[in-house]
Amino acid sequence: MDRLLYTAMSGAKQSMDLQAVINNNLANVATPGFRAELQALRSVPVQGDGLATRTVVAATTPGSDFSHGAINTTGRELDVAIDGDGWLAVQTDDGEAYTRRGDLQIDANGVLTNMGRPVQGDGGPIIVPLGSQVSIGSDGTLSALVAGGEPNTMGPVGRIKLVNPERGSLLRGEDGLFRPKAGPGVLQADENVRVVSGALEGSNVSATETMVAMIDSARRYDMQMKNIESVDENAQRANSLLSAN
């Protein structure tokens, strides 16, 4: 009976962990550029003398779903969506990281930011003259027109660093940003990556599929708990029979 207990106990725990991943995906169904996190369950034999017939369930996180989300027009000058493959580079405390989220902002110091993190340009963070009118070209070049200036005085102030690593070569961090699996490093800019200004890429999470997965995970957890209850009842009946003898 303990063989079933091993499987049911570990299966219930991993079902709870899977539910947490599903909940996180569902919570970000409307987050621009979000990539769904993937998780799978597998059986693992228990190692040890006399335990060769016992099996536990282990969770594995294969990575993220890198399929593209839908591009929605917003009309906002600082919104950009990656057209096809590619990533925006941002500066973090531990170096450079990458994201598909494109709702950019300009802080009080004129620094172009992404969720509070400086956006990387050709030579570091991009600084925009305060109060200027900004436009972003398809190659990521920012042009600024100072308030009151003539239209022909608009000039480039920087270019967003765009990279295009091999699909699956990036790993999601706890902050939701992606970094190379090989370890800390800086990817080279790719001149061929293009962006769509005045638009945002939506999350690639399907709300319907995620809700179905949530229900399935909850039912799987209930099934494992019923198995544990059955093992307990069988053990009690076996003890009663032994006591009667």
Which keywords apply here?
245 residues, alpha+beta, 2 domains, 3-stranded antiparallel beta sheet, 2 helices, 31% strand, elongated
Word description of this protein:
This protein has 245 residues and is α+β, with helices and mostly antiparallel strands. It folds into two domains: 2-66 and 204-244, no CATH class; 71-201, no CATH class. The protein has two helices and 19 strands. It has helices at residues 2-27, 207-244, and strands at residues 37-45, 55-64, 71-73, 80-83, 87-92, 95-99, 105-106, 112-114, 117-118, 120-121, 124-125, 133-136, 141-145, 155-159, 162-163, 170-172, 178-180, 194-197, 199-201. The two termini are 21 Å apart.
Summarize it:
With 245 residues, the protein is of the alpha+beta class.
Radius of gyration: 26 Å
In percent, how much strand structure appears in the residues? 25-35%
Distance between the termini: 21 Å
Largest sheet: 3 strands, antiparallel
Helix/strand class: alpha+beta
Q: Give helix and strand order, one letter per element, not per position.
A: HEEEEEEEEEEEEEEEEEEEH
Q: Helix amount, in percent?
A: 25-40%
Taking pLDDT < 50 over at least 5 consecutive residues as the criterion, the unreliable ranges are none
Strand order, main sheet: write it out.
6-5-15
Number of strands: 19
* Total tally of structural domains: 2
Instruction: Please tell me what the overall shape is.
Output: elongated
Per DSSP, the total helix count is 2
> Mean pLDDT across all residues, rounded?
85
